[in-house]
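Quick one, T. Sequence first:
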Amino acid sequence: MARYADGYAHGGGPPRAFASAATRARAAWHDLGRPGEPKLWGQAYFALGDPDRGTAYLRDYYAFTGPFAETVAAANLTSARAIRDLVRGYRAEGCDELVLLPTVSDPAEVDRLAQVLS
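Structure tokens:
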């Protein structure tokens, strides 16, 4: 990341995990003498309309990871409060872009997310 890219993309998890990884990314960036700061991206999964279906999707999608699939599924954001807390936490830790990925294939999920974040 520090040598060849514009920044670091965090694969998911709570804000504290992002903060730890971002600290390491910034340190590597500066160790190589790169100017400015690296861009920092994060991602998270959410399901507001049908949380059980969204969580089941993640278990199935990540089944190849064995028991780790349950960890990913448990992190699925299924309430307005969980989404707002995660967004607030990532923002506080310096995340430049946060991608929220719906785990239910219902276009209304985007509208539900917009309501939560408005």
